[in-house]
Protein backbone atom coordinates (compact mmCIF):
# COMPACT_ATOMS: atom_id res chain seq x y z
CA UNK A 1 0.00 0.00 0.00
CA UNK A 2 1.23 3.51 -0.79
CA UNK A 3 2.42 5.66 2.09
CA UNK A 4 -0.38 8.18 1.55
CA UNK A 5 -3.11 5.59 1.26
CA UNK A 6 -5.78 5.16 3.89
CA UNK A 7 -4.99 2.73 6.69
CA UNK A 8 -6.68 -0.62 6.52
CA UNK A 9 -9.58 -1.13 8.92
CA UNK A 10 -9.05 -4.20 11.16
CA UNK A 11 -11.31 -6.99 9.94
CA UNK A 12 -13.12 -7.57 13.24
CA UNK A 13 -13.59 -3.91 14.22
CA UNK A 14 -16.77 -3.20 12.17
CA UNK A 15 -18.47 -6.25 13.67
CA UNK A 16 -17.69 -5.22 17.24
CA UNK A 17 -18.83 -1.65 16.54
CA UNK A 18 -22.06 -2.93 14.97
CA UNK A 19 -22.61 -5.21 17.97
CA UNK A 20 -22.09 -2.29 20.37
CA UNK A 21 -24.64 -0.22 18.42
CA UNK A 22 -27.16 -3.06 18.50
CA UNK A 23 -26.71 -3.28 22.27
CA UNK A 24 -26.97 0.49 22.69
CA UNK A 25 -30.10 0.93 20.58
CA UNK A 26 -31.73 -2.05 22.28
CA UNK A 27 -30.83 -0.51 25.64
CA UNK A 28 -32.49 2.81 24.75
CA UNK A 29 -35.57 1.07 23.32
CA UNK A 30 -35.93 -1.20 26.34
CA UNK A 31 -35.61 1.75 28.71
CA UNK A 32 -38.46 3.44 26.86
CA UNK A 33 -40.48 0.21 26.94
CA UNK A 34 -39.94 -0.19 30.69
CA UNK A 35 -41.07 3.37 31.38
CA UNK A 36 -44.04 3.08 28.99
CA UNK A 37 -45.29 -0.32 30.06
CA UNK A 38 -44.75 -0.17 33.81
CA UNK A 39 -44.13 3.45 34.83
CA UNK A 40 -46.89 5.18 32.83
CA UNK A 41 -44.73 6.93 30.23
CA UNK A 42 -43.28 10.43 30.34
CA UNK A 43 -44.99 13.81 30.79
CA UNK A 44 -43.14 16.86 32.10
CA UNK A 45 -45.98 18.62 33.92
CA UNK A 46 -47.27 15.63 35.87
CA UNK A 47 -46.24 12.87 38.26
CA UNK A 48 -44.58 11.24 35.25
CA UNK A 49 -41.90 13.95 35.09
CA UNK A 50 -39.49 11.76 37.04
CA UNK A 51 -39.49 9.19 34.20
CA UNK A 52 -37.61 11.66 32.00
CA UNK A 53 -34.62 11.19 34.30
CA UNK A 54 -33.72 7.55 33.55
CA UNK A 55 -34.43 7.92 29.83
CA UNK A 56 -32.31 11.06 29.48
CA UNK A 57 -29.44 9.55 31.43
CA UNK A 58 -29.42 6.36 29.37
CA UNK A 59 -29.53 8.31 26.10
CA UNK A 60 -27.01 10.97 27.17
CA UNK A 61 -24.50 9.56 29.63
CA UNK A 62 -24.58 5.98 28.35
CA UNK A 63 -25.45 5.74 24.64
CA UNK A 64 -24.17 9.09 23.33
CA UNK A 65 -21.15 9.19 25.62
CA UNK A 66 -20.20 5.67 24.56
CA UNK A 67 -20.51 6.59 20.91
CA UNK A 68 -18.46 9.74 21.41
CA UNK A 69 -15.66 7.56 22.78
CA UNK A 70 -15.86 5.30 19.72
CA UNK A 71 -15.57 8.13 17.17
CA UNK A 72 -11.80 7.77 16.86
CA UNK A 73 -12.13 4.02 16.25
CA UNK A 74 -14.96 4.25 13.70
CA UNK A 75 -13.70 7.23 11.65
CA UNK A 76 -10.13 6.05 11.24
CA UNK A 77 -9.30 7.69 7.92
CA UNK A 78 -11.33 10.91 8.02
CA UNK A 79 -9.72 14.28 8.68
CA UNK A 80 -8.63 14.61 12.31
CA UNK A 81 -10.29 18.01 12.66
CA UNK A 82 -13.65 16.61 11.48
CA UNK A 83 -13.39 13.62 13.81
CA UNK A 84 -12.44 15.86 16.71
CA UNK A 85 -15.45 18.16 16.15
CA UNK A 86 -17.80 15.17 15.93
CA UNK A 87 -16.33 13.79 19.17
CA UNK A 88 -16.94 17.13 20.89
CA UNK A 89 -20.47 17.56 19.50
CA UNK A 90 -21.59 14.12 20.67
CA UNK A 91 -20.34 14.97 24.14
CA UNK A 92 -22.25 18.29 24.05
CA UNK A 93 -25.48 16.53 23.08
CA UNK A 94 -24.90 13.98 25.85
CA UNK A 95 -24.27 16.75 28.38
CA UNK A 96 -27.40 18.71 27.43
CA UNK A 97 -29.63 15.63 27.53
CA UNK A 98 -28.16 14.61 30.89
CA UNK A 99 -28.82 18.12 32.20
CA UNK A 100 -32.48 17.77 31.20
CA UNK A 101 -32.55 14.50 33.16
CA UNK A 102 -31.09 16.21 36.23
CA UNK A 103 -33.58 19.07 36.03
CA UNK A 104 -36.41 16.54 35.75
CA UNK A 105 -35.51 14.69 38.95
CA UNK A 106 -34.75 17.80 41.03
CA UNK A 107 -37.93 19.54 39.86
CA UNK A 108 -39.98 16.42 40.58
CA UNK A 109 -38.52 16.14 44.09
CA UNK A 110 -39.21 19.83 44.73
CA UNK A 111 -42.86 19.50 43.71
CA UNK A 112 -43.32 16.37 45.83
CA UNK A 113 -41.35 17.64 48.81
CA UNK A 114 -38.86 14.78 48.61
CA UNK A 115 -35.29 15.03 49.90
CA UNK A 116 -32.44 15.41 47.44
CA UNK A 117 -28.99 13.88 47.31
CA UNK A 118 -29.28 11.38 50.15
CA UNK A 119 -28.70 8.10 48.28
CA UNK A 120 -25.49 6.56 46.93
CA UNK A 121 -26.99 6.74 43.43
CA UNK A 122 -27.55 10.49 43.72
CA UNK A 123 -24.04 11.11 45.06
CA UNK A 124 -22.49 9.08 42.26
CA UNK A 125 -24.75 10.80 39.73
CA UNK A 126 -23.67 14.30 40.75
CA UNK A 127 -20.02 13.19 40.77
CA UNK A 128 -20.37 11.75 37.25
CA UNK A 129 -22.09 14.85 35.90
CA UNK A 130 -19.52 17.25 37.40
CA UNK A 131 -16.60 15.12 36.17
CA UNK A 132 -18.19 14.86 32.74
CA UNK A 133 -18.67 18.62 32.49
CA UNK A 134 -15.10 19.32 33.65
CA UNK A 135 -13.75 16.69 31.24
CA UNK A 136 -15.57 18.30 28.33
CA UNK A 137 -14.52 21.81 29.34
CA UNK A 138 -10.85 20.89 29.70
CA UNK A 139 -10.94 18.81 26.52
CA UNK A 140 -12.43 21.73 24.60
CA UNK A 141 -9.78 24.08 25.99
CA UNK A 142 -6.91 21.77 25.05
CA UNK A 143 -8.03 20.24 21.74
CA UNK A 144 -10.60 22.54 20.10
CA UNK A 145 -9.99 26.02 21.46
CA UNK A 146 -7.28 27.84 19.47
CA UNK A 147 -4.45 28.41 21.90
CA UNK A 148 -3.17 25.21 23.52
CA UNK A 149 0.31 24.28 22.36
CA UNK A 150 1.11 20.93 20.79
CA UNK A 151 3.39 19.89 23.66
CA UNK A 152 0.69 20.74 26.21
CA UNK A 153 -1.88 18.69 24.27
CA UNK A 154 0.50 15.77 24.07
CA UNK A 155 1.11 15.80 27.82
CA UNK A 156 -2.60 16.01 28.64
CA UNK A 157 -3.87 13.48 26.06
CA UNK A 158 -3.22 10.33 28.19
CA UNK A 159 -5.13 11.87 31.12
CA UNK A 160 -7.98 12.87 28.82
CA UNK A 161 -8.26 9.31 27.49
CA UNK A 162 -8.07 7.76 30.96
CA UNK A 163 -10.68 10.03 32.52
CA UNK A 164 -12.96 9.63 29.50
CA UNK A 165 -13.07 5.85 29.93
CA UNK A 166 -13.31 6.15 33.73
CA UNK A 167 -16.25 8.56 33.61
CA UNK A 168 -18.05 6.30 31.15
CA UNK A 169 -17.53 3.32 33.45
CA UNK A 170 -18.79 5.38 36.42
CA UNK A 171 -21.84 6.37 34.37
CA UNK A 172 -22.73 2.73 33.72
CA UNK A 173 -22.27 1.86 37.40
CA UNK A 174 -24.39 4.82 38.50
CA UNK A 175 -27.16 3.82 36.09
CA UNK A 176 -27.15 0.30 37.54
CA UNK A 177 -27.42 1.75 41.05
CA UNK A 178 -30.35 3.91 39.97
CA UNK A 179 -32.11 0.99 38.31
CA UNK A 180 -31.81 -1.14 41.44
CA UNK A 181 -33.01 1.76 43.58
CA UNK A 182 -36.05 2.29 41.36
CA UNK A 183 -36.96 -1.40 41.52
CA UNK A 184 -36.75 -1.48 45.32
CA UNK A 185 -38.88 1.66 45.64
CA UNK A 186 -41.52 0.59 43.10
CA UNK A 187 -41.72 -3.15 43.69
CA UNK A 188 -40.55 -3.61 47.26
CA UNK A 189 -41.05 -7.18 48.40
CA UNK A 190 -42.65 -8.13 45.08
CA UNK A 191 -39.25 -7.83 43.41
CA UNK A 192 -38.24 -11.24 44.76
CA UNK A 193 -41.41 -12.81 43.29
CA UNK A 194 -40.10 -12.45 39.72
CA UNK A 195 -42.56 -9.71 38.79
CA UNK A 196 -42.50 -9.04 35.00
CA UNK A 197 -41.28 -5.49 35.58
CA UNK A 198 -38.43 -6.77 37.72
CA UNK A 199 -37.40 -9.31 35.10
CA UNK A 200 -37.50 -6.67 32.35
CA UNK A 201 -35.43 -4.28 34.47
CA UNK A 202 -32.89 -7.02 35.22
CA UNK A 203 -32.46 -7.58 31.48
CA UNK A 204 -32.08 -3.81 31.11
CA UNK A 205 -29.29 -3.91 33.69
CA UNK A 206 -27.53 -6.68 31.79
CA UNK A 207 -27.77 -4.61 28.60
CA UNK A 208 -26.21 -1.65 30.43
CA UNK A 209 -23.29 -3.80 31.54
CA UNK A 210 -22.85 -5.42 28.12
CA UNK A 211 -22.92 -2.10 26.25
CA UNK A 212 -20.35 -0.67 28.65
CA UNK A 213 -18.18 -3.76 28.26
CA UNK A 214 -18.39 -3.68 24.46
CA UNK A 215 -17.38 0.00 24.31
CA UNK A 216 -14.48 -0.47 26.72
CA UNK A 217 -13.25 -3.55 24.86
CA UNK A 218 -13.14 -1.63 21.57
CA UNK A 219 -11.33 1.25 23.27
CA UNK A 220 -8.69 -0.92 24.91
CA UNK A 221 -7.67 -2.88 21.81
CA UNK A 222 -4.34 -1.25 21.00
CA UNK A 223 -4.37 -2.53 17.42
CA UNK A 224 -7.73 -0.81 16.81
CA UNK A 225 -6.52 2.67 17.69
CA UNK A 226 -6.70 5.33 15.01
CA UNK A 227 -3.40 5.28 13.08
CA UNK A 228 -1.30 8.41 13.03
CA UNK A 229 -1.61 10.31 9.75
CA UNK A 230 0.50 12.95 8.04
CA UNK A 231 -2.46 15.32 8.14
CA UNK A 232 -2.38 15.21 11.94
CA UNK A 233 1.16 16.55 11.98
CA UNK A 234 -0.02 19.50 9.94
CA UNK A 235 -2.91 20.07 12.33
CA UNK A 236 -0.51 20.05 15.26
CA UNK A 237 1.00 23.22 13.86
CA UNK A 238 -2.37 25.02 13.89
CA UNK A 239 -3.63 27.40 16.55
CA UNK A 240 -0.41 29.38 17.09
CA UNK A 241 1.90 26.42 17.73
CA UNK A 242 4.39 27.72 15.17
CA UNK A 243 4.81 30.92 17.15
CA UNK A 244 5.26 28.95 20.38
CA UNK A 245 8.19 26.95 19.04
CA UNK A 246 6.68 23.45 19.45
CA UNK A 247 7.68 20.72 17.05
CA UNK A 248 5.15 18.20 15.72
CA UNK A 249 7.97 15.77 15.23
CA UNK A 250 8.08 15.20 18.99
CA UNK A 251 4.73 13.34 18.96
UniProtKB/TrEMBL annotation:
<keyword id="KW-0472">Membrane</keyword>
<dbReference type="Pfam" id="PF03188">
    <property type="entry name" value="Cytochrom_B561"/>
</dbReference>
<keyword id="KW-1133">Transmembrane helix</keyword>
<dbReference type="GO" id="GO:0016491">
    <property type="term" value="F:oxidoreductase activity"/>
</dbReference>
<keyword id="KW-1278">Translocase</keyword>
<dbReference type="InterPro" id="IPR006593">
    <property type="entry name" value="Cyt_b561/ferric_Rdtase_TM"/>
</dbReference>
<keyword id="KW-0479">Metal-binding</keyword>
<protein>
    <recommendedName>
        <fullName>Transmembrane ascorbate-dependent reductase CYB561</fullName>
    </recommendedName>
</protein>
<keyword id="KW-0249">Electron transport</keyword>
<dbReference type="InterPro" id="IPR043205">
    <property type="entry name" value="CYB561/CYBRD1-like"/>
</dbReference>
<keyword id="KW-0813">Transport</keyword>
<feature type="transmembrane region" description="Helical">
    <location>
        <begin position="12"/>
        <end position="37"/>
    </location>
</feature>
<feature type="transmembrane region" description="Helical">
    <location>
        <begin position="199"/>
        <end position="219"/>
    </location>
</feature>
<keyword id="KW-0968">Cytoplasmic vesicle</keyword>
<feature type="domain" description="Cytochrome b561">
    <location>
        <begin position="19"/>
        <end position="220"/>
    </location>
</feature>
<feature type="transmembrane region" description="Helical">
    <location>
        <begin position="57"/>
        <end position="75"/>
    </location>
</feature>
<keyword id="KW-0408">Iron</keyword>
<dbReference type="GO" id="GO:0046872">
    <property type="term" value="F:metal ion binding"/>
</dbReference>
<keyword id="KW-0812">Transmembrane</keyword>
<dbReference type="GO" id="GO:0042584">
    <property type="term" value="C:chromaffin granule membrane"/>
</dbReference>
<feature type="transmembrane region" description="Helical">
    <location>
        <begin position="126"/>
        <end position="148"/>
    </location>
</feature>
<comment type="function">
    <text>Transmembrane reductase that uses ascorbate as an electron donor in the cytoplasm and transfers electrons across membranes to reduce monodehydro-L-ascorbate radical in the lumen of secretory vesicles. It is therefore involved the regeneration and homeostasis within secretory vesicles of ascorbate which in turn provides reducing equivalents needed to support the activity of intravesicular enzymes.</text>
</comment>
<keyword id="KW-0349">Heme</keyword>
<dbReference type="GO" id="GO:0005765">
    <property type="term" value="C:lysosomal membrane"/>
</dbReference>
<feature type="transmembrane region" description="Helical">
    <location>
        <begin position="160"/>
        <end position="179"/>
    </location>
</feature>
<feature type="transmembrane region" description="Helical">
    <location>
        <begin position="87"/>
        <end position="106"/>
    </location>
</feature>
